[in-house]
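Subgroup meeting minutes
Present: P.N., E.W., G.H.
Scribe: E.W.

1. P.N. recapped why we're keeping a running log of single-chain structure predictions: easier to compare across weeks, and new members can see raw inputs and outputs side by side.
2. G.H. added today's entry (362 aa).
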Amino acid sequence: MRFDTVLLSRDAEGLFWMARYLERVENLARLIDVTQSFESPGYETQAWFGLIQINADEKNFEARGFSPDALHVKRFYLLDKGNPTSIPANIEDARTNARTLRPLMSTEMWRQINVFHRFVGRITAEDLEGDSLSRVCTALKDGVQSHTGITEGTLYRDQGWYFYHLGRVIERADQTTRMLDIKYTIILPREGEAKRVAELTQWNAVLRAGAGYHAFKRHARAVFSAEDVVDFLLRDPSSPRSVLLSVRRAEAYLEDLRRIYGLSRANEPMEVAEYLREILTERPTGHILATGLHEYLDVVQIHLQRLAAAIGRAFFRDWRPDDDLLPADVLGGGTSSQSQSQGSAPLKNPDLRSGGKAEALA
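Output recorded in log:
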């Protein structure tokens, strides 16, 4: 027997953003852990400020009175609840969405996210140094992975499951491009012995931040190059955090929503995802590095934002783009993180079936 379940637009939006917020927690925990482990002597401030740049938080960081050193960056992301891109803020936003989704979630999912939320709230300034920080980052990564495992094992496979995974893979691709852009820029200017040390250590750090170190070493040459690392993170068809795999998965989820559930509004985001896949595969990696990786990644990030915007327009309640998605900023290459709009009013019982009220959404 097949149950034709109805998914409200606000629930689709909540699942999409809950996944994105939790993915951010894991990615940020990885970056903090790797930055501490692979600090280069003389480049500590540059390395830690790189986290601020990855999240486009320069203005917010300065406005809140922090200075660009390790201690303040760690406080900004691990303790500052007023910083919307911090780990406490992201887990709070994820739990807020989970609360509205309680009827759709298993008891195990709800219990785990509450336990995780309490753990994040107990992080103190004493936890930000040395081995304590590494243990905290490991616990944060484990917490998100526990959520992922419980979700895979207990979340019902209806439309909601697809929106959850759409949020997850879009956020993952976005974070990979941001991390690669900033880390590559930090490593690139060095010459001579400093460059050799960077190639031996910092590219390993980049791979670990992208959760791809061991997988990369299985396939890489003994003496690998920057081109090898960039190609792996952008285009490897099997690496869970490669941008290309994430985009292909987004295409597959959208196709299933259209084919299985008759959601014809998936057409627009599918076209954006297809075009993004072409951008990722049309030019050799060596050519991209020669002509400008930063500019190329800007284009990829803009189209990831457009993909999220297309999904929002197609399916979510009274959806409005954030400031970073306005045409002037998109054309200017802005890469600030997207966040869930808090000002949109829910529609009355919009469902996502073909021919239902979702088809009338503007």
